[in-house]
Each structure stands twice: as structure tokens, then as C-alpha cells.
């Protein structure tokens, strides 16, 4: 399965490059996929999708127990790591371990986020809620820690 592929509900538009209308070839080789924030929510759905396609998935999440539970599906070949991507030493250690174990990472999905609860921006009355909703330069740097290591 692939994202952003044409479906029957939207017919091709004249002048659309043929390569955009073609579906990707089926993969025959398994990839090593790292999903940060992969224990719950959207990250867990991404983990299941890659796992169903036969890829080996590394689930890195602060919730190590949920990551370990998810890593057991369906054949148990996946790896769960308790990692906080806001802590640089943990990220570096993760990538060093993956390099030693697999020698490569084929796909990196950054799904880790700070979202304790959903609060519409208009309803943010407390300083704590406003800080969770804002994107500070420090938060942006933390969210990009994994990409350079990959």
C-alpha cells in the first residue's frame, strides 16, 4: 500500500504526467522502518501498516510498555525501544543500536509529539495549555533530532 496514489474517485486530469498516475511496484524486500511516537495513535497505525507490508519496524516511544505490546504483532519481528526524542543522548543511543543491529534505516517516520490533551486554541486560558500549543524554536529543534542521525 502506498499513500498519495490516485484512486478511482478522481479521474486523471489532461496533462498529468504518467509517472504520477502509475502505482508503485510491489516491494519484494523488507525495509527497516523507524517510527518515533509509534506506540499510540497515528504512529501506531503507521507501525501496523508497515508491519502488514512485511517491513521490520522499530517502535521508539516514551511509552515503552505500549511499544513492546505493539511490537509483538503479528510475528514478533519488530523492536520496541523506550526513547524520549527530546533527550539527545537517547536518540543517539537508539541510532547507534540500530546501526549495529541492522546496518541501515530505510524509512524514518517522525510521529512523536507533545499532546497530553486536545484543547482548541481559542479555549487556551492557562499558560500551561498555551505552551503545549505553541511551537517554540527549542521544540522545533527537538522534533528534528532524529533526521540528521538517520
Question: What does the model show?
Answer:
Strands 3-2-1-4 form a four-stranded parallel sheet, covered by helices on one side. 38% of the residues lie in helices and 13% in strands. The protein is α/β, with parallel strands linked by helices and 150 residues long. The two termini are 24 Å apart. The chain has helices at 18-21, 41-52, 64-71, 88-102, 127-133, 137-143, 146-149, and strands at 32-36, 56-61, 79-82, 107-110. Strand 1, helix 2 (41-52) and strand 2 form a beta-alpha-beta unit. Mean pLDDT is 76; it is low at 129-136.
Topology:
Elements lengths: L17 H4 L10 E5 L4 H12 L3 E6 L2 H8 L7 E4 L5 H15 L4 E4 L16 H7 L3 H7 L2 H4 L1
Parallel strand pairs: 1-2, 1-4, 2-3
Count of alpha and pi helical runs: 7
The largest pleated sheet is described as:
4 strands, parallel
Low-confidence stretches: 129-136
Gap between N and C termini: 24 Å
In terms of quaternary structure, the protein is: single chain
The whole-number mean of residue pLDDT values reads 76
- Helical content class: 25-40%
**Major beta sheet, strand line-up:** 3-2-1-4
Q: Which radius of gyration do the C-alpha atoms yield?
A: 18 Å
Strand content range: 5-15%
Which structural category do the helix and sheet elements fall into?
A: alpha/beta
Total strands: 4
Q: What sort of overall outline do the alpha carbons produce when their principal axes are compared?
A: elongated
One letter per element, helices H and strands E, the order comes to HEHEHEHEHHH
Amino acid at each position: 500500500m502506498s499513500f498519495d496514489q490516485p484512486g478511482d474517485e478522481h479521474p486523471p486530469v489532461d496533462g498529468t504526467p504518467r509517472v504520477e498516475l502509475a502505482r508503485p511496484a510491489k516491494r519484494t524486500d523488507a525495509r527497516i522502518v523507524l517510527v518515533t511516537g509509534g506506540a499510540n495513535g497515528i504512529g501506531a497505525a503507521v507501525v501496523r501498516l508497515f508491519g502488514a507490508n512485511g517491513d521490520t519496524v522499530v517502535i521508539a516511544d516514551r511509552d515503552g510498555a505500549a511499544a513492546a505490546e505493539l511490537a509483538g504483532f503479528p510475528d514478533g519481528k519488530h523492536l520496541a525501544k523506550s526513547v524520549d526524542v527530546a533527550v539527545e543522548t537517547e536518540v543517539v543511543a537508539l541510532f547507534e543500536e540500530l546501526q549495529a543491529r541492522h546496518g541501515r534505516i530505510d524509512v524514518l517516520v517522525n510521529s512523536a509529539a507533545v499532546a497530553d490533551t486536545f484543547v482548541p486554541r481559542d479555549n487556551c486560558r492557562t499558560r500551561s495549555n498555551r505552551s503545549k500549543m505553541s511551537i517554540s524554536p527549542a521544540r522545533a529543534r527537538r522534533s528534528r533530532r532524529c533526521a540528521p542521525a538517520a
